[in-house]
From TrEMBL:
Keywords associated with the record: Hydrolase, Protease, Serine protease
UniProt-recorded name of the protein: Peptidase S8/S53 domain-containing protein
Residue ranges annotated for the Peptidase S8/S53 domain, each copy included: 166-288
One Pfam assignment: PA
Domain PA: 64-139
Superkingdom to which the source organism belongs: Eukaryota
Example GO biological process: proteolysis
Length: 1213
């Protein structure tokens, strides 16, 4: 049978079919995505049907001999078996027995689908089964033979078309040919066709018709379609669908054949045996029924896009690509290849001579072979790829010369025809490449990046080339490149970048058109040249002309600036530029050239232009260190407001210094000076500096208007005043401090927990300074101030205790020291801070039967007369305590007591003295019973008798208890204190600056202090020395003849020496002296106590005592002060406190001047205090919040008084 002619089968004519059947649509696919086949399966009428969404299950290939028995490893799988061999029903039973989930049988003949015969034994079939045509079976069998893992799932059902026209006639032949080629290739209606009937034996025309059936009726219909296709091309309807004579062309027979096959539509009815027809490509219907509406673009009738090409001849190994863009919503895509194959030898087993291959690569890069097989077709000279439900993207159709032994009479190779069609398909060039992101035409960056976009694929390579206008190794010939091309370090030159895509999938490499991009790299900036300038001092208008030495100069930028006028940056300009100044001043005209690459002249040309129409005058430039300072020396720099004017020489300068008070008193008048003017040793105050210029001998017009500035000298540090502080003992963890500075200042503060390793952390703060969630402990808050002149004031401090732990009763014992009294002895513990905070008040309560249940203040021992206690009744004794931080326990301690008639206690107890030095104690008592038991210092009771001796005992408190054992009895007891140590004397005192100073005396001793003895002694040779006399521990007053320093005679110094006193200062007149003395007292520490002071362990903090100042009498004369510090020379420092540490001496200071004296020997020390107008003196006591400001209206010198020594001695018994 001819391989180049178009073979046509006969389909049925119009009408309705009497059969209606459905096909289950099964999808057979490979996991790697290389194959995806959808096949309708003709379901058997027995067993169960294939259900939608059934699967997926793996597919197993069965050998015919094995399919007649249960195939191994078939459980859970779909078995694919051939129709040949034993009966398919027997195979189906064996397959079900093997545990398979379904069976698919493919025809071993080319008759399409086939039904299985029905038998009574089929009632036991419970798995779905069906048949498929041979072409699909061979396809799946080939995939499984090559080791592909195929899976099966149901994706729907194919409805049967009931139209007769979609079914084949029974008389139409079917393929394949003897050598296996595809026949027929198309079908056309051949059943009951109405045709013209000739008038047999007559030459006259006739209008008779004849109805005939047969393939002889199908072929004329097909020939008519071919004639219309040829006319379509000859009249120029291709490709626009409209008649355009310029488009006229004569199509080849292969092209007409390809168009007819490409437009064929599939039959979906029955084959000639009455079974559902197998889909194209099949040996029943070929590629389908011809349909010109699906073959050609007919405007107004369809929206088909058709590409019909007669490609260049192909030789072995050569190929040709056709590229198409598919858009969303497209119908099925078809690609058809046809060629006229040379005749084969008569004895050839394979009729095909020149073998061309068609394959299509879809957007998912899946390769689809012609005629739907898993491998290229080696039998037919027509191949087609049909894509159902295509995805959008690029489709590449490749026609490849697999084997072309006959290259034709011209030796060019095998010619072919190619057709592609779909509603949303458009042809696009296969090899397209362009640079899309390129450098600017002119640039000054030596590194360039070029982005390339174009056609890509497995056999397509991109090549790039870079040409330069100069010899450079950076240029290169064609080389492989990607979509991101980068070159760095390119020298200045003109460059051309070329890019080309090459398809190397065939022996004849395909080349795209070369795309270009040109650019210039220029990194050398242009140089600006000033040609002329008309600027002058006395002319308000100036004209500037300029140019550039670079031929690539693109434009110029100008800038015209002064202290008054500005052009607001660089602006475009051109030569010449005319500018106009409307006020005096210095102007600068700048101009720079900018080339096409964007390079700017790094050194713009400029012209300074001075316009001055007024006389120059003095101008203050700066003041060093600054106009507000705490040093007495400063420098004032000045110059002319318009220096270096033409014709103006250096002027003669005059300066003046005034105070800035109301009268403006002059420190000195106008006098010659020069810049800088140095002002030294200025006392505190506000000064006005005036500077003026005068013409020198060479002349010149200068203005005599002076320039002035203000200089403020302020060496007085600011003082900080507390307005609100926490209480000394606080039960709250949140505290705040309110304070203020004597002048505008920056305050810094520090909160430190004492007796810990915590370091001081100073930071800026403002009032009020709040601190939250403080832990229990002793805290010290420190604050200081620094004014605008840089003076830092004294650090003032305040200590307080945070104690949130209430006291608790740790022991509570009832006793009956005599017959008429019950004694409750208890002790209270205030926790870890008890030694600092301490118990303030203890409270006792008896039950309501005795005292109404009221809490009353009490102390241990708490004595209750027995007459208040009813015998035989239970009484409750209760105790609780409150500390000095106002913490009071929520619960209390209690003891219960029931007095009976025989309750009695030991009487007549004789104890040691309450305070004694004796370490052996003797205790005696009367006992009316046979024996007693005793207890010492809360130890166990032991049998004892009177007298009872105990000792030796250590220093401290001791207790003794005795009671009867014959019956329940209250115990009797006593306490005493053994003290063999020496007491220490302590003093609290405020500043002693009156004639009647007051001192608060205190002492420390384990056993307590009995009394104080005091003595007052004057260091003045005419003074009186008092003898020792008894004095009160409370504040005592002594009348002295002069202000006294206070000296302590004691064993050691303790913290209590410098606790806050309630009196910050006092005032008194000194009788018999013309001066109203204002000197205050200081704490004078004897030399012998300095070492003990330095070695004290109390928080390692230095202590300080500050001097107090009171205004002197306005009428008192200024008296020089004699400084007596032994042979030492007074040293001056900025310290503002009397302080002693291990590293520094004691400093006696004031707010302005001070004398430092090293306590290295016995002696009398005095100090100098000086005040100035408007100044203030801050008085305060170390660790205390009390402040006092005392104003001194006039400068005065204050002399020290004679020194008195007050000594205190504690006497202990």
């Amino acid at each position: 049978m001819s391989k180049n002619s178009l073979t046509v089968g006969a389909s049925m004519g119009p009408g309705h079919s009497i059969r209606h059947e459905n096909l289950a649509l099964l999808r057979f696919y490979v996991l790697n995505g290389t194959s995806d086949l959808r096949v309708g399966v003709l379901e058997n009428s027995f067993g169960v049907m294939f259900q939608d969404n059934w699967g997926p299950f793996p597919l197993l290939r069965a050998i015919p001999g094995e399919a007649c028995i249960s195939p191994p490893n078939a459980a859970g799988m779909v078995v694919l078996a051939s129709r040949e061999g034993c009966d398919c029903i027997d195979k189906l039973v064996a397959i079900q027995d093997a545990g398979s989930v379904a069976a698919v049988f493919f025809n071993n003949e080319n008759t399409g689908y086939f039904p299985l015969s029905l038998r009574s034994s089929l009632e036991s079939i419970t798995i779905p089964s069906g048949s498929i045509p041979r072409v699909f079976g061979d396809y799946l069998d080939s995939m499984l033979t090559h080791g592909d893992s195929v899976f099966v799932e149901v994706v729907g059902h194919v409805p049967f078309n009931g139209e007769r026209i979609d079914s084949m006639t029974s008389f139409s032949s079917w393929g394949p040919t003897l050598d296996g080629r595809q026949k027929p290739e198309t079908v056309a209606p051949g059943d009951k066709i109405v045709s013209a009937r000739s008038n047999m034996g007559s030459k006259e025309a006739t209008c008779r018709t004849l109805v005939l059936s047969g393939t002889s009726m199908a072929t004329p219909i097909t020939a008519g379609g071919a004639a219309l296709i040829r006319q379509y091309f000859m009249d120029g309807f291709y490709p626009t669908g409209s008649k355009v004579l310029a488009h006229s062309r004569q199509p080849s027979g292969a092209l007409v054949k390809a168009i007819l096959i490409n437009g064929a539509v599939p039959l979906r009815g029955l084959n000639g045996n009455g079974v559902i027809i197998d889909p194209p490509l099949s040996f029943n219907q070929g590629y389908g029924r011809i349909d010109l509406l699906h073959s050609l673009f007919l405007p107004g009738h369809n929206k088909l896009n058709v590409t019909a090409e007669e490609g260049n001849p192909l030789k072995t190994g050569f190929g040709q690509r056709y590229c198409f863009s598919c858009f969303p919503g497209s119908e099925d895509l078809k690609f058809t290849l046809a060629w006229y194959d040379p005749p084969a030898l008569p004895a050839a087993s394979v009729i095909l001579v020149n073998d061309l291959d068609l394959f299509v690569i879809d957007p998912s890069n899946t390769k689809r072979y012609g005629n739907g097989g898993p491998r290229p077709d080696r039998m037919n000279n027509v191949e087609q790829v049909s894509v159902s439900d295509p995805e959008s993207g690029l489709y590449v159709a490749v026609i490849y010369g697999y084997y072309v032994p006959e290259e034709g009479p011209d030796g060019l190779g095998q010619r072919f025809a190619f057709v592609a069609s779909a509603a949303s398909l458009s042809a696009t060039p296969c090899l397209v490449i362009n640079p899309v992101e390129v450098p600017p035409l002119f640039g000054n960056i030596a590194n360039v990046r070029i982005t390339v976009e174009g056609t890509s694929g497995p056999y397509i390579k991109w090549f790039c080339r870079l040409d330069a206008s100069i010899e450079t190794p950076k240029g290169h010939d064609w080389e492989i490149c990607g979509n991101d091309y980068f070159a760095e370090g390119l020298p200045d030159a003109f460059y051309t970048f070329s890019v080309q895509a090459r398809d190397e999938s065939f022996l004849n490499t395909a080349y795209s058109e070369i795309s270009f991009a040109s650019f210039t790299i220029d990194t050398i900036p242009p140089r600006t040249i000033l040609l002329s300038s008309s600027a002058s001092v006395f002319c308000e208008t100036a004209v500037f002309e300029f140019s550039s030495d670079s031929a690539d100069t693109d434009h110029f930028e100008c800038q015209f600036t002064s202290g008054i006028l500005s052009s607001h940056g660089w602006t475009l300009c051109g030569s010449p530029v005319k500018v106009e100044a409307r006020s005096d001043g210095r102007y600068t005209f700048h101009v720079r050239a900018v080339d096409k690459a964007g390079n700017q002249d790094p050194q713009p040309v400029f012209v300074h232009w001075l316009l001055h129409r007024e006389r120059p005058r003095a101008k203050i430039v700066t003041i060093l260190p600054k106009d507000l300072t705490n040093v007495s020396t400063c420098r004032v720099y000045f110059e002319l407001d318009v220096p270096n004017l033409p014709g103006i020489q250096e002027p003669r300068w005059s300066c003046r210094l005034n105070l800035s008070d109301i009268e403006g008193a002059a420190v000195y008048g106008w006098r010659s000076c020069s810049s800088p003017l140095e002002l030294s040793n200025l006392p505190d105050g506000i000064y006005i500096v005036s500077v003026r210029a005068a013409e020198n001998e060479s002349g010149g017009a200068l203005s005599s208007v002076p320039a002035t500035c203000t200089v403020t000298i302020d060496s007085l540090p600011p003082e900080v005043l507390f307005f609100a502080v926490p209480p000394l003992f606080s039960s709250s963890r949140d505290v705040s401090y309110a304070f203020a500075s004597s002048e505008v200042s920056t305050t810094t503060c520090c909160m430190t927990k004492l007796n810990t390793a915590e370091e001081e952390r100073w930071q800026q703060c403002t009032s009020p300074a709040r601190f939250r969630n403080l832990e229990d402990g002793v805290y010290q808050f420190s604050v200081t101030a620094t004014d605008l002149a840089g003076n830092t004031g004294l650090v003032i401090k305040h200590r307080f205790l945070v104690d949130t732990t209430p006291p608790s009763v740790v022991s509570f014992v009832l006793s009956q020291p005599d017959l008429d009294v019950v004694t409750a002895e208890f002790s209270v513990d205030d926790g870890p801070l008890g030694s600092t905070s301490g118990v303030a008040t203890s409270y006792c309560r008896l039950d309501s039967q005795v005292q109404g249940g009221t809490w009353i203040p009490c102390s241990s021992p708490w004595r209750v007369e027995q007459s208040y206690l009813a015998p035989g009744v239970e009484h409750t004794f209760m105790v609780k305590a409150e500390d000095r931080a106002s913490n009071i326990a929520l619960d209390h301690a209690e003891q219960k007591l029931v007095l009976t008639s025989n309750s009695s206690a030991v009487h007549g107890l004789v104890c040691p003295e309450a305070y004694t030095r004796l370490q052996i104690a003797t205790l005696a008592f009367n006992s009316s019973l046979s024996w007693t038991e005793c207890e010492v210092d809360e130890q166990v009771f032991v049998a004892c008798g009177s007298p009872y001796h105990v000792g030796p005992l250590v220093d401290g408190a001791h207790t003794f208890k005795v009671r009867y054992l014959s019956s329940f009895s209250l115990w009797s007891g006593c306490k005493w204190y053994i003290d063999t140590g020496t007491p220490e004397t302590l003093i609290r005192s405020s500043v002693v600056n009156t004639l009647s100073p007051s001192f608060e005396l205190s002492g420390y001793d384990g056993g307590g202090i009995e009394r104080y003895e005091c003595m007052l002694q004057s260091l003045d040779p005419q003074g009186q020395r008092h003898s020792w006399r008894k004095c009160s521990r409370q504040l005592m007053s002594l009348r002295t003849r002069a202000i006294a320093f206070v000296e302590l005679q004691e064993h050691s110094l303790r913290k209590s020496h410098y606790e806050l006193s309630s009196s910050p200062y006092a005032s008194a007149a000194l009788s018999g002296n013309a001066l109203d003395m204002g000197i205050v007292a200081r704490l004078c520490v004897p030399v012998s106590n300095v070492s003990s002071l330095a070695s004290t362990s109390y928080d390692e903090q230095p202590f300080a005592i500050f001097l107090m100042l009171r205004k002197t009498n306005e009428s008192s004369p200024t008296v020089p002060l004699a400084i007596s510090t032994g042979n030492a020379t007074p040293n001056y420092t900025n310290e503002l406190q009397l302080i002693y540490t291990r590293e520094s001496p004691i400093l006696v200071t004031t707010m302005w001047e001070l004398v430092a004296a090293q306590l290295d020997q016995e002696g009398t020390y005095v100090t100098t205090l000086v005040t100035r107008p408007g100044s203030y003196m801050l008085a305060r006591i170390y660790e205390g919040p009390t402040l006092a400001f005392i104003k001194a209206s006039q400068p005065r010198m204050i002399v020290s008084s004679t020194t008195l020594i007050f000594m205190c001695l504690c006497i202990f018994v």
